[in-house]
UniProtKB/TrEMBL annotation:
Location of the active site: C255, H339, E341
Principal EC category: ligase
Protein residues bound to L-glutamine: S54, G227, G229, M256, Q259, N297, F300
Record domain Carbamoyl-phosphate synthase small subunit N-terminal: where: 10-148
Name by which UniProt lists this protein: Carbamoyl phosphate synthase small chain
E.C. no: 6.3.5.5
SMART domains (alphabetical): CPSase_sm_chain
Subunit structure: Composed of two chains; the small (or glutamine) chain promotes the hydrolysis of glutamine to ammonia, which is used by the large (or ammonia) chain to synthesize carbamoyl phosphate. Tetramer of heterodimers (alpha,beta)4.
PROSITE patterns assigned: GATASE_TYPE_1
Top-rank taxon, per record: Bacteria
Amino acid sequence: MKDRKITPKRKAKLVLKNGKVFEGFLFGSRRNAAGEVVFNTGMMGYPETMTDPSYKGQILVFTYPLVGNYGVPQLNDSDDLPLFFESQKIQVEAIVVSEHSEKYSHWNGYQSLDEWLKAYDIPGLYGVDTRGLTKILREQGTLLGKIITDNKPVDYYDPDTDNLISKVTISQKYEYGSGKKRILLVDCGCKKSIITNLLDRDVRVLRVPYDYDISNEDFDGVVLSNGPGNPVVYKKLVETARKLIQKQVPTLGICMGHQILALAAGAKTYKLKYGHRSQNQPVKVVGSNKCYVTSQNHSFAVDTKTLPKGWMPWFENLNDYSNEGMIHEKLPFRSVQFHPEATPGPVDTEFIFDEFLKDV
Ligand SMILES: NC(=O)CC[C@H](N)C(=O)O
């Protein structure tokens, strides 16, 4: 356990668009921030969660009462992929916690949560009644909010109308691995573990920007990755997915990728009241009694009723019965709303990658 100086308390607050104010203290970077306020009920995995690019544009509330006690690992890149994070940097706009640890203890701990936030210029608010705050978000639905640390004005920011994927996608194509089959990965803000799950199954992965013209590339299958924002904003991406359907290219959609594939198939998406963000979301295989516990992070969902002929619901959420995946009756298309790559969370659904690769 490293001894650290306890920093003096500095007041700050979270102001919600409904007028509610939560006072607390600042840690991390000393600046204001705005975004959509969402909560995650996971009990561990804050380094992986905070580096998930799907959180871009969001202020993340951790409901687990103590965050930071095992510190944060060093950014160690191996084969151009971060070893212990889901991307190279913190992606959330800010975090809100009840209590954070200035001291930490872990074999892999390199710095404190406070130091890590400062290094990436991300503010954190602690000393907040996160249970009270989460009740508001559950009852009223997700709200816009801002962290205010000084007297400078800051506007609310609505991520649902913005092209957030352009801010998190890879800038140029990049190839990983050396397997015989080549998977084209459309990077909408891809989590590292999607890539490592593919590489573990001995395929080559060609990772391309979300707006890349894929018509000149050779590949055996396509993965549409997770990503931030509202799927209906990404019309060109939906067009790309439509072409994959026309050409009957084996395709796996994950989270945002599921929503994009569903829009391309002709289905509709809608926004859930407060989304699913945790590591223990139960899903059931439609038409059976088989259940899995999954890791999730999403606000939007596919409306099962709008799935066109040929497309079947694959999984459903056992908390609210919303759609958690779809599969084509005959053609090699499948997609899931949850995260088969987990990280953080249970790895029970990694078989989704095997099933996809059987089609490739
Ligand atoms: N993790 C994801 O890919 C999330 C997809 C989309 N941004 C949503 O919130 O529903």
